[in-house]
Design brief:
6 helices, 2 strands
Length: 179
């Protein structure tokens, strides 16, 4: 199936292209692990960091979109544009990036023997909290899509800081390993 976008023909929908890209990433990472053995660790870590960056970009941007969407009149062209932007951000960037970050992060932790270390337990708890925020944002996206948002722009401005604070704590734990 081809879709015309701005006069240019593209194969499939954005979601299909995202999942094809996710599949290629997973296959390439699995091939690296299989072919490189122990030398694959750094390559897998690089893909993990890229996935975390993509996930965090979405986690920081989606609440900001909600700030503006909360002030847009329901049913307006602006509101409908925000719905599309939010949906694509979640399904094409955030969900695949979170999955890759989790899968590779668990593999990396297992390979390095981090499951017995205190800093890693704290980091894992914060990543679970980040995933819970992701789930909350996903539920909020559905409410916005159904014109059922009941939160103010001020609420979303405050929520925009939660992923930032979690990210700071996670990065400090990973880099400093304080305990």
């Amino acid at each position: 199936m081809t879709v015309a976008v701005g006069g240019e023909k593209r194969l499939g929908s954005p979601a299909v292209r995202a999942f094809v890209a996710l599949g290629i990433t997973v296959a390439a990472t699995a091939a690296a692990i299989f072919l490189l053995g122990d030398a694959a660790y750094d390559w897998v870590k690089a893909v993990h960091v890229i996935a975390v960056i993509a996930w965090m970009a979405g986690m920081l941007y989606l609440p900001r979109l909600f700030v503006y969407h909360a002030d847009a009149p329901q049913g307006s062209e602006l509101s409908e544009t925000f719905k599309l932007m939010e949906y694509r951000l979640m399904t094409i960037i955030m969900n695949p990036a979170m999955i890759v970050a989790w899968v590779l992060g668990v593999w990396l932790a297992w390979q390095a023997g981090y499951f017995t270390q205190g800093w890693f337990h704290a980091k894992l708890a914060l990543v679970v909290a980040m995933s819970a925020v992701h789930g909350m944002l996903s539920a909020s996206l559905r409410r916005f899509a159904e014109d059922r948002n009941d939160k103010t722009a001020r609420y979303w401005r405050m929520m925009n800081e939660v992923p930032t604070l979690l990210m700071f704590a996670i990065v400090i734990l990973v880099v400093v390993k304080p305990f």
